[in-house]
Specification:
Layout (H helix, E strand, L loop, with lengths): L2 H5 L10 H36 L3 H27 L4 H19 L5 H15 L3 H11 L2 H11 L1 H21 L1 H9 L1 H12 L20 H10 L1 H32 L3 H31 L5 H19 L6 H16 L2 H10 L6 H35 L3 H9 L2 H12 L3 H12 L1
Helix pairs in contact: 2-4, 2-5, 2-6, 2-8, 2-9, 2-10, 2-12, 3-5, 3-17, 4-5, 4-6, 4-9, 4-10, 6-17, 7-13, 7-16, 8-9, 8-13, 12-13, 12-15, 12-16, 12-17, 12-18, 12-19, 13-14, 13-15, 13-16, 14-15, 14-19, 16-17, 17-18
Length: 436
């Protein structure tokens, strides 16, 4: 008896209608909205938390980046190893319930370290959500439409930004930052129940038009296969660098606007959530759609769509840190937000498609491990440290110049996405052969 049959009753090919697949995708988007809103909420609350606990930027960077990312990234791998063998739906249910409860617990913190430990709990919970979701979506949609499906799933990022930044700021302004944690955390428990009772576990490999091997690769075999895929190595490197730049904006942008433009979190939340959230959402969807569209004509164009988008957004991203007019900043931010979001759908789709079917959940977890540990975990605390170091010379604008310096990593990222295209065709064939 396989692990699948022991732990679940996966749906068989043809059992799931198109309407149900759309519903399942929408439900996983709802999970991701809760996931990302709870993750990003802390960013809009940082000014109030910094004032209450008298914190430095380095301490803030550790709190909302490193403390979360270490556990989020590290625990995602063992959870994914289980999910590749067991019931992915139940992993998502347990993860959603945990991060929601721990987000609410953040509101009860009476000291910096209590908040750190609650934030770690959020990271532990969120570690179990995305890799199983990516795997389930890849079993519902074929390669031709997988990038679009994962881009739709990734709208959880943009909608989570809107909920977390705007909703969190308005609640905090009216009732205090602690209530914001309660208000955004507790609804996740209801979402977990909805997943438990309505989501069907699809058969693994159902979207592939060939028999699926019953052999489950070991963790070491998965690592070696990923390392052997040259296109995937370039994609992971490019996505890590892009994540570092993207998270620096998402996590530190509210503080940058407060310090350099003098707006309160409540004053800027609607504009920031609308422009940044809608801009990134448009980019995420467009990246997945264009990657699928051009990839159906030539697979090497799948990652190269990201290269073009990244280079287009670069000058606009730099400009937002060089102008002093806050209105102009908000008008500009939508362009780099859209361009910066275009890497996500294609990267997730390629990370799933460039490995064997039985490797997908672990591959997704390893992908997220690398990009989040470096991009969010290391990047956030380094940005905080750089800001503290530049403060004696630049004062309130230290964070502005720190974020401007970080933009250079997008050039490096663009190179790796372009190089990935050279190896896509051969590596996709190797992944298909490894699934048989």
């Amino acid at each position: 008896m396989t692990a699948d049959s022991a732990t679940s009753a996966p749906a068989q090919p043809g059992e799931l209608s198109t309407n149900y697949k759309i519903y399942a995708l929408g439900l996983l988007v709802l999970v991701y909205i809760s996931n990302y809103a709870d993750r990003i909420l802390l960013g809009i609350l940082l000014p109030a938390i910094k004032a209450e606990f008298s914190l430095t930027d380095t301490e803030l960077g550790f709190l909302h980046g490193t403390a979360f990312a270490i556990f989020y990234a590290t625990l995602g791998v063992p959870i994914a190893i289980y999910a590749d063998r067991g019931n992915r739906k139940l992993v998502i249910v347990a993860a959603t319930a945990m991060w929601s409860a721990m987000t609410a617990l953040c509101g009860m913190a009476q000291s910096y370290w209590q908040l750190v430990f609650a934030r770690i709990g959020v990271g532990v919970g969120e570690a179990g959500s995305n890799p199983p979701s990516h795997s389930i979506i890849s079993d519902l949609f074929t390669l031709k439409y997988r990038g679009t499906a994962l881009a739709i799933f990734s709208q959880g990022v943009s909608l989570g930004i809107v909920v977390g930044l705007y909703g969190g700021a308005q609640i905090a302004e009216a009732y205090g930052w602690r209530v914001a944690f309660y208000a955004l955390g507790l609804p996740g428990i209801l979402i977990a129940l909805l997943v438990l009772f309505t989501l069907v576990e699809p058969r693994r490999g159902a979207a592939e038009a060939q028999p699926l091997s019953a052999n489950i690769p070991t963790f070491g075999e998965t690592i070696r296969f990923i390392a052997s895929q040259r296109s995937l190595r370039h994609i992971i490197t490019g996505a890590t660098l892009t994540t570092l730049v993207g998270y620096s904006g998402v996590l530190w942008w509210p503080s940058f606007i407060v310090r350099s433009h003098g707006l309160s979190p409540a004053d800027m939340s609607a504009f920031l959530a609308l422009v940044f959230g809608v801009g990134s959402g448009f980019g995420i969807f467009l990246g997945g759609y264009l990657s699928d569209y051009f990839g159906r004509r030539d697979v090497k164009l799948m990652p190269r769509v990201v290269t073009v988008a990244t280079l287009i957004g670069l000058p606009f991203g730099a400009a937002i840190y060089l102008v002093d007019n806050s209105t102009l900043v908000f008008l500009l931010i939508g362009i780099p937000a859209a361009a910066g979001g275009m890497y996500l759908g294609p990267s997730l789709a390629m990370a799933q498609s460039l490995v064997a079917v039985r490797m997908r959940t672990v591959a997704s977890a390893l992908f997220l491990f690398i990009i989040n540990l470096i991009g969010m975990g290391l990047g956030s605390v380094v940005i905080g440290g750089m800001s503290d170091a530049l403060t004696p010379q630049y004062g309130q604008d230290a964070l502005r110049y720190t974020l401007l310096i970080v933009m250079v990593f997008n050039v490096w990222a663009a190179y790796h996405f372009w190089r990935a295209g050279r190896y896509m065709e051969a590596d996709l064939k190797r992944a298909l052969d490894a699934s048989a």
